[in-house]
Amino acid sequence: MCGAGGTGGRLLLLLLSLLGGLLSAGPRAEGLLIALPNADNMTVTVKHGPVNPTPALCNICTPKEGCKASVLQILPGQSVTFNFSCQTPEKYFVMEIKKSIDCTSGPCPFGAVELQPSGLPRLNRTFTWHVKSVRKIGLELSFNPWLRQIAPSDACPDSTTFSVSTCLGPKPSNIGTFCRNGSVSRVKVQGGALVALHLPWNESSLQSGFSIANRSSIKRLCIIESTFKAESSAVLLSASYPLGFPEDELMTWQFVVPPNHRASIQILNYTLPNCEKKEERVEYYLPASHNNPEVFKLADKQPANVAGNFNMSLQSCDLDDQNPRALNLRFKITVQLSPKEGNKLYSLDLTKEKGLTVTIKRRPRKFRHFQPVCLICKGPTDCEQEVNLTSGRFYRLSFLCDNLEQLMVTAEKVLACWSPACNVKNQPLSMPPTLLQLPVQLHEFAWKLIAPDDISAEITSKSLKLQQQRFQEQSCNSSYHYDVNSASVEHSLSLGVFCPSGAIEKIQMRDNVTIVLTPAPAANLSTDFKNDLAVSFVPVIKEECIFRVTPKADSKVYLQTPNWDRGLPDYVSLSWNIIVPPKQAARLAFLKDRMDIVCETGRAYINIKEQKAMGEEVIRRDDELLPEPRDLSHPFWVNISNCKPMTNSNRLKVQFSVVLSQKHTDPKTILIAAVASGVGLLTLGIIVLTICCVRKKKRENRNATVGVYNANVNTQMPGRQVVFNKGRHKNESHIYAVIDDNMVYGHLLDESNGSVTPAIGIYQPFQGYMEDAPPVPSPSFLRERMKKENFEDPLSSSMRDNELYTFAKHKPAEQVSSGDSGIHLLENHNQDDVADSSKG
Fold first, then answer.
1. In what order do the strands lie in the sheet with 383-384?
2. Cα(104)–Cα(101) distance, rounded to whole angstroms?
3. Does the structural domain 542-664 have CATH classification 2.60.120.290?
4. What pTM does this model have?
5. Are the beta carbons of 742 and 701 closer than 8 angstroms?
């Protein structure tokens, strides 16, 4: 029993020991044998990778040491069998295979470099070949497939990476890091080379991908050959990027360009060294150039539109030891098929232009795998993807682009007036004819009108005239349209989109103006554009803008306030001067019945005023209904003045329409006019008889009271920020305060016997319309608004000195009336009040 029990216990301990060994070793793989010949100068090292496992997870198992090793090194002439104590050793271990190739003496083993040894475990592997060479001898390495250069910090999509370095200096200099499938076909290095190939554990490639092709002196750090077979681009970097190009070194790129293709160089970024001697530079050997090598600075525009193979070299300098700084270069070469008209020249004459800048660039586009650049060339190799052409010069342009529809032209012209003496009057808003003849479509042409605060801008369209496009309606039915904007420090005002063939003849704007012409997508402006707009600089207006509208008969004109998408700014005032021809009537209608605004400060007003004596005037406030459609037979003003609204989302927007029609005369009106004419003739006869009776008496009156011009009257128009200026027909300056009835007909007196003809003044009512100033809102509106918003008091402003005369009896100088006709602006006197005041 004891013996049996003892035997059973030993058996149990043996089984537990074997089980523990199996658990500690994990699932064993079959043994891996690596045998390195003595003559291959090769070593293999298996070691921990980025992830360092604990011994319990995975170890290297060898017959001598068991499963305890974390590093295994196999030297030339050794043969080692090993495996791992886990099933996923690729997670924890990497393998480095280093081989030395001697090209210093004897035959250099030209040809493809093989991946050795074979039968390696599935680990991340790094093969490194040290090709030794004499310092003065350069080695040529050829790659298949070709390589694509990347920054050392970048990664390749398939995790297969090449690295090439040179042993020319005391320590290796990294020529570059590459992925497969690019344009780099060969790399020449001087003084020996280090080539490293990193393969992921799941890569089963049996070829190294490079060969030693030749050896010859190159007298520079390296030469990189970039070969193109079709349209493509490549990004290349200087050696040791981004640590810095070696001091006083030279490297070269050789570009192989296929027939019927053009190449262009674009520097993406660079850093400059701190040179003690010499200076850094870029040199080009270009085909058919008479100045080879052509030297450029890194900040210069690099050659483009190059047909044929060419070289590019980077030269560094002697660095300052105290503060060397690093020289780095990253650039892009693009090779694309030569367009059919790539050599065709187009003239752009800007010699007679002033203040004009023309920009040609590529339209915004979506990303594609390869995007051929569109280059605009001002010379054989002076090409850029975007060019700015200035006035005063003559250009001959060519385009290296497979599709010119990818390009667009924008232009901006500045018209400035810095004093009233600038004398800009009816200057056409024209474009250079040669600009419209380019094969690239014009995207927009902008005119910027700039003037000081005391000068306003005026644009006119005499023949075509303009129509205002209504908001959210279809675009203009024309080949182009204008966007008109006005801007000041306080606010910006988008007057809207305007098309030719309308009714707006003139627009005056107080502040700086931008007019942008935008063609339709398929427009041919060389034939469609009609140069009809002209600009003038005029004395400043007090309103933000004034429109002069001349509608056509039997056509409806739609008009709307500026800033339609977001509403009028606070306290803005604007006017429309609607011209109604004789024998026609205009029907004015608002598209809504209310202003749809709630004012926080001030009031919003709409004022309609016929431009005739005693003309109809209609004023509506923001809390009132807008006027019903009405007919007006004379020219009239529409004035809109804004307040400060309660909320920004509820701003003032007004639309209205005007329709002209033939005016029909009422027969009763004709009869009344005839009767009035007869009465007038009869009255005239009575007046003539009366004059004859009093003629002698008047001749004897040498001391009669004469009309006296009142020089104390304020003679300038009232300036207001929001309320419109008033004209003579509104300010009542033509009304006489006192008229001596003895002097009404003084011009009929006999002037013989040396008598002095007295100054006379005859009051005649205003018969025609005047358009020198828009109407003003109601007197109560003026008083209330000036009190609430501290506007300038019109009574304190001056009137025109040629508009106010006072006829009165002779008085001492101190008793002469001040002629303050501003009372008529703020007070509504009836006829009795006026008579009483005259008598008083």
1. 346-349, 394-400, 375-377, 383-384
2. 9
3. yes
4. 0.61
5. yes
